[in-house]
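Reminder: ligand-aware prediction takes two inputs, not one.
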Amino acid sequence: MNIMVTNDDGIHAPGIRALAEAMKELGHVTVVAPDRERSAAGHSLTLHSPLRIFELHKDWYAVDGTPTDCVNMGIHNMLPVTPDLIVSGINHGANLGDDVTYSGTVAAAMEANLMGIPAIAFSLATFDKECNFDAAARIALRVARQVATHKLPSDTFLNVNIPNCPLEQMRPTLVTRQGKRSFIGKIVDKTDPRGRKYFWIGSEEPGPNDEEGTDFHAINRGHVSVTPLHLDLTNHKSLKILSGWEF
Ligand code: MN
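Here is what comes back for the chain with manganese (II) ion:
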């Protein structure tokens, strides 16, 4: 197998090293990742400035762009053959519920899915400094093996969240649906040393979100969460309602 690895925490992040290392057990690994952290870049594509590639060492390339740029560069410019799988992560921090729309980690898998390439996004559900990326990488390998064996259903990519614990404490993997985040936005409002106001977007812990069957519910209980996603954002339930309107 040929596997391309990317992320949004940047090519120097520990999560991508662990993921690339584990994927070597499946085949040939090429890393194409942002040269710096691009978390919350979403599905952003760079159109108004050039992109540059930096070869760090064999099969490891940094691009001065977003995760979506990296997938485009990898597929259309850098890799000699289309990879059999694109994996993104392992992100430092969960990507659960509505947060997937901000995530550069998930967007890289989304971009691969648009290109018809099987793709998986992996996130470690913690913001702690102590991270079990090696344990998470073993789980990632297991998930990737399942994808290789069964082949993903059409128009489907996977969003995988992994609890931050040693492998033996990991609870079984659950297939989940995307939950709803009770978002509590917080704008930090301060004054800089020259007396000018500045603002910084932050957030508080997500509000209670524990509906059974969701990604939140699984992670809250120490399970690995695997959510199949697709890009059709149509609200199918609303189609019928709106078709009765007189536009
Ligand atoms: Mn990130």
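Residues 2-180+209-243 form a domain with the Stationary-phase Survival Protein Sure Homolog; Chain: A, fold (CATH 3.40.1210.10). The chain has a mean pLDDT of 95. We will return to this case in the review session.
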